[in-house]
Design a protein that fits this description.
With about 525 residues, the protein is of the alpha+beta class. The chain is built from 17 helices and 19 strands. A hairpin with a 5-residue loop joins strand 4 and strand 5 (about 85-90). Helix 11 (about 315-325) packs antiparallel against helix 13 (about 385-395) and helix 15 (about 435-445) packs antiparallel against helix 16. The longest helix is centred in the last third of the chain and has 18 residues, at about 475-490.
Length: about 525
């Protein structure tokens, strides 16, 4: 195995490799630091890759490379005739990871499932507010507090979940990162020791890799879980080398200092494809990038203003400059590859002179605004700073002055949720379960205001449509409702929809077993390095 010389100059990695000369170490040059390691508390893919897709499992999992669900920690389940009761039979013999900081004394059982879900649901649960300022944003954004009736332990290996109403995407939701199953025994020990915050700092689950340590903004270390119910992994050690600059990630990949990287610069992709030491995977991304106005704050509370700004944005220029042909302009809040996408909806046309007049007609003069530019690359937005600069120039043409602001990634995500936030935020989304609900309700529903709904937009007509679609079981009926919701969205313009991008993953030629996910996650179970 080639020595990863530059990377191992770091003290943390030198320590890792000491005494492990014959082990297989896979290094992933990740694009950012996780906000924490409890996937229930967050919504960002960077955090999920470092927690949910390494340390944890869920009752259901997504089949590799698809949005189809399959058994995970639940080996089977049944659904009542009225669609309101789901009974899950847990997989026997599943062990929690043994680490330097905790040794479990029992295997997975129903108590762990109930703990993992009820802590997010019940305000009086002792773990509901264990992280200061933390919130169960995804759980709430999916509307689950209003859907759940009860979670019951039938026996040690059986859990029954009752719903108040039918919820078509419910099983897919349980395969999402926020529904990861924690060890109640570990949580109880932390609570007894007065160390509850450690659950978010030192994770412990049933997944393929066990957490070893984290050096802030530098490196995360994992080891293969020898007791993993899916079998021990072919690689012995997994390292996340946190490298925020895409050009530096590429240099490390070329030098053999990492095996795989996410989110390359568009300008580097052709060279990557031509490099005999690399291989590149690509597929249409299940994603959207957008500019979210705060629709509760003047002047963005005026529809005419939002419409005018949308007509001032040259989206094709953004796609050409930032993605260099590896994306398409976006019309709708869901991607064209997703079922129920309405291709009859006309996009905003680029007409700066018309936009300028619309602002004048709305009585808006000398408008100054902020555009928030996310500090990290994501598949849907490779360079938010450049995108913001292009929009800044576009808006200047209609007399609007723009200040570009940014923050560290975790701070950016948190601050942008504020209901009184100023300006407009560049963000995006890669679907987490393959269902339109995961875009339309999660990002734009009334329950998500103050969370994932960065536009702070609560429209009753839209919300009623997506709620009805969740309760419907017929795909044709759901499709019709979602298409009506897309029309309302386009009419009301809480966002400027920007692009849908290709998902591109370069890696060393000797990497085998990595499966590109349509959900945009990076998981390394099943991966091997062949010399």
């Amino acid at each position: 195995m080639k020595k990863l010389t530059t990377l191992f100059a770091a003290t943390a990695l030198a320590t890792l490799m000491a005494g492990s000369a014959w082990s297989k170490t896979f290094v992933y040059c990740s694009e950012g630091s996780p906000e924490g390691f409890d996937p229930g508390l967050y919504t960002a893919g960077t955090t999920f890759d470092a927690s949910a897709h390494t340390v944890y499992n869920r009752l259901l999992e997504f089949k590799k490379g698809t949005t189809e669900t399959e058994p995970g920690l639940a080996e089977s389940w049944t659904i009542s005739d009225d669609g309101l009761e789901y009974t899950f039979k847990l997989r026997p013999g599943v062990k929690f990871q043994t680490t330097e900081f905790f040794t479990p004394t029992r295997e997975l059982n129903a108590d762990d499932v109930i703990f993992s879900l009820e802590r997010q649901w019940k305000p009086d649960h002792p773990w509901h507010g264990y992280v200061t300022g933390g919130s169960w944003e995804y759980f709430a954004g999916m509307g689950l507090p209003d859907v759940l009736e009860s979670i019951e332990k039938v026996d040690d290996m059986t859990v029954k979940i009752k719903l108040k109403r039918k919820e078509a995407p419910f099983l897919a939701n349980l395969a999402m990162p926020f529904a990861s199953i924690m060890s109640k025994e570990y949580a109880d020990k932390l609570q007894a020791d007065g160390k509850m915050n450690q659950l978010n700092q030192m994770p412990l689950g049933t997944g393929p890799f066990a957490f070893v340590g984290y050096q802030q903004d530098a490196v995360i270390r994992y080891k293969a879980n020898p007791d993993y119910w899916g079998g021990k992994q072919k690689i012995d050690d997994l390292v996340f080398s946190i490298t925020t600059d895409a050009a530096v990630r590429y240099q490390k990949l070329q030098a053999g200092e990492c095996h795989l990287m996410p989110y390359p610069n568009a300008a580097d992709v052709e060279a990557m494809k031509a490099d005999p030491n690399l291989k590149v995977m690509e597929q249409a991304g299940l994603n959207v990038a957008y500019l979210a106005y705060n629709t509760t704050q003047p002047p963005f509370d005026k529809l005419e203003v939002r419409k005018a700004l949308n007509k001032a944005i040259n989206k094709q220029a953004i796609v050409d400059a930032v993605f260099q042909g590896q994306a398409t302009t976006a019309s709708n809040p869901i991607p064209p590859t997703m079922w129920s996408y309405d291709d009859t909806i006309a996009d905003d046309t680029y007409e700066p002179e018309v936009a300028k007049k619309m602002l004048e007609d709305a009585g808006v003069k000398d408008l100054s605004m902020k555009i928030w530019a996310m500090p990290v690359a994501r598949p849907y937005m490779l360079n938010a700073r450049r995108t913001a600069e292009l929009m800044q120039a576009d808006f200047a043409k209609i007399g609007v002055k723009v200040e570009i602001v940014s923050y560290e990634w975790a701070e950016y995500l948190e601050k942008s949720k504020a209901k009184d936030r100023d300006g407009a935020v560049i963000l995006g989304w890669t679907g987490d379960n393959g269902d339109p609900d995961n875009f339309l309700d999660t990002l734009l529903g009334c329950d998500a205001v103050g969370g994932n709904n960065r536009a702070q937009w609560c429209n009753k007509e839209f919300d009623d449509l997506v709620t009805k679609a969740k309760e419907a079981t017929d795909v044709a009926e759901r499709t019709k409702l979602y298409q009506q919701a897309q029309a309302v969205f386009k009419r009301e313009a809480p966002w400027a929809t920007l692009d849908h991008s290709l998902s591109i993953v370069p890696m060393r030629k000797n990497v085998e077993g990595f499966v590109q996910s349509p959900l945009g996650d990076f998981a390394f179970d099943g991966v091997d390095i062949v010399e």
